[in-house]
Design brief:
Blueprint (H helix, E strand, L loop, with lengths): L2 H22 L4 E9 L3 E10 L2 E9 L7 E13 L11 E13 L4 E18 L2 E18 L12 E12 L1
Antiparallel strand pairs: 1-2, 1-8, 2-3, 3-4, 4-5, 5-6, 6-7, 7-8
Length: about 170
């Protein structure tokens, strides 16, 4: 499946997921976030929340690199569970799944990846409007393309990658 087909499928899933809760749940709550992770790097995101479910998207980069351009894009679903906590009705523990796209471009070569994102995390609520997400999991490689298609010393083609992330979030 090429990148265009992944984007069409991802958009279709997003439309269905964003339309279905409007019928079943009240108006969503909105969270914005900023953080660092593998492979989100330095990222910013937004999440819509319906009770214990969230749908989110984030975009990331590594702005400190001189000759390398790194870009990531992710769409995720979250399900929160566990005991209730201070400051919010959102349960603190969550499982997260989604699709992530990652591009790493050097002057002479470019790698493009698509991953299935599987993570387990915890919201650490600092106040009713602010908190920190900490998560750990795995990225399962769905596709990898190198441009130009040639062998090289370092090959990024691993089927499973570790995934870790830390984000600060604000409830609007």
């Amino acid at each position: 499946m090429n990148k265009g087909k992944y984007l069409i499928v991802l958009n279709l899933i997003a439309v269905i997921l964003l339309s279905f809760p409007k019928v079943c749940f009240p108006q969503p709550k909105v969270n914005i976030s900023a953080g660092f992770g593998v492979f989100e790097f330095v990222n910013a995101g937004v999440k819509l929340q319906w009770q214990q479910f969230q749908a989110g998207a984030s975009i990331g980069t590594m702005p400190f690199l001189k000759d390398e351009k790194i870009f990531s894009l992710s769409g995720d679903l979250y399900f929160h569970f566990g005991d209730t906590v201070k400051h919010t009705s959102t349960k603190p523990w969550y499982v997260k799944t989604g699709i992530s796209y990652f591009s790493d471009a050097l002057p002479d070569i470019k790698d493009k990846f698509t991953f299935l994102n599987l993570r387990f995390g915890r919201d650490l609520n600092i106040s009713p409007k602010m908190g920190i997400d900490v998560e750990l999991g795995a990225l399962i490689q769905l596709s990898h393309k190198t441009i130009p298609d040639e062998d090289r010393f370092w090959n990024f083609n691993m089927p499973i990658w570790p995934a870790i992330g830390v984000n600060i979030f604000f409830r609007l």
